[in-house]
Amino acid sequence: MSGNRLSGKVAVITGAASGIGRGTAERFAEEGAKLVLVDNNEARLLEAAEQLKAGGASVVAVAGDVSLSETADRVLEAGRDAFGGIDILFNNAGIMPVVSVLDMAEETWDSVMDVNLKAMFLLSKRVIPEMLKRGGGSIINTSSVMSTLTEPKYAGYTSSKAGIIGLTKAIAVEYAEEGVRCNAICPGWVDTELNQRLAVELGGMDKLYPIIKQQQPTGKMATVREIANVVLFLASDESTAITGASIFADGATSAFI
Q1: What is the Cα–Cα distance from 173 to 243, expressed in whole angstroms?
Q2: Which residues neighbour 116 within 8 Å (Cβ) at sequence distance 6 or greater?
Q3: What's the rounded Cα separation, in Å, for the pair 136 and 129?
Q4: What are the distances in angstroms from CA 173 to CA 13, 176, 208, 224?
Q5: Which of 13, 9, 32, 38 is nearest to 23 (CA)?
Q6: Residues 6 or more apart whose Cβ sits within 8 Å of residue 57
Q7: Which domains does the chain possess?
Q8: Residue 168: what are its φ and ψ, rounded to 5°?
Q9: What pLDDT is stored for residue 2 in this prediction?
Q10: Is the separation of the CB atoms in 235 and 140 below 8 Å?
Q11: Cross-referenced Pfam families, in alphabetical order (predicted)?
Q12: Catalytic annotation on 175?
């Protein structure tokens, strides 16, 4: 499937070296977007960028820690210098420490808040003025079904993902009249490398799927492409009536538990 739903649009994608970020970069490229890819894993980021370029996409890569202001500055400069501005921001980078409240170090709490939430504020703050110059734009933030549901040892992750919902609503309300939309996606189980590693730790995918089936009524993980299609819709002009929303792409988990 390919088309021109994002033709002429410039999109920033964080966490672009793997998982949902990389899958979304591929999907955006198919629809004609020019890409600014961001990740802290420089080797994998450059690999992803080269693969997309080989397919004909226009791509620049920015390696760095998204929780730092200097990275946000470099992303803004890259979008301006390479493509003249930014129309779409997919705030997707995140980390997921698994540790109890009592065992969590203060540094771990700060790190998950910085990467998962503060980074979205920093990049949105840089990018919104560019979007306003271009008559509007779309920001999509990756939250999680765990913004409203949780398990033991996910206090930091759940708190950060809930915070993303609040930030998303605040940006949407503040810039609604000026054409900058902001929405969140809330995935459930997704077939990413993170969950594939979890399966290995549990002893194989046959050990993981009973857990998924207990939590996600579809009984299977969503594919990265399925999530990327949701992001594409929110980035495109097909969703201009939607802002301030949280889209649960979670296989009915939030309806079931």
Answers
A1: 8
A2: 93, 94, 95, 157, 160, 161, 163, 164
A3: 9
A4: 23, 5, 40, 29
A5: 13
A6: 29, 33, 34, 35
A7: 10-189+223-250 (3.40.50.720)
A8: -60, -45
A9: 64
A10: yes
A11: adh_short_C2
A12: no
Cα 116 to Cα 114: distance, rounded to the nearest angstrom: 6
Confidence band of 257 (pLDDT split at 50, 70, 90):
low
Which H helix or E strand runs over 28?
Answer: helix 19-30
- Cβ neighbours of residue 194 closer than 8 Å, sequence gap 6 or more: 19, 96
Side-chain-side CA neighbours of residue 44 (13 Å): 13
Cβ count within 10 A of residue 238: 11
Block residue for tokens 């370029």: 53
- The pLDDT tens digits of the residues spanning 172-198 come to 999 999 999 999 999 999 998 888 887
In the block, tokens 């990018």 appear at 127
Give the mean pLDDT of the chain.
96
Residue indicated by tokens 């890409």: 35
Q: Residue 197 corresponds to which tokens in the numbers above?
A: 């590693």
Q: What pLDDT band is residue 207 in, cutting at 50, 70 and 90?
A: confident
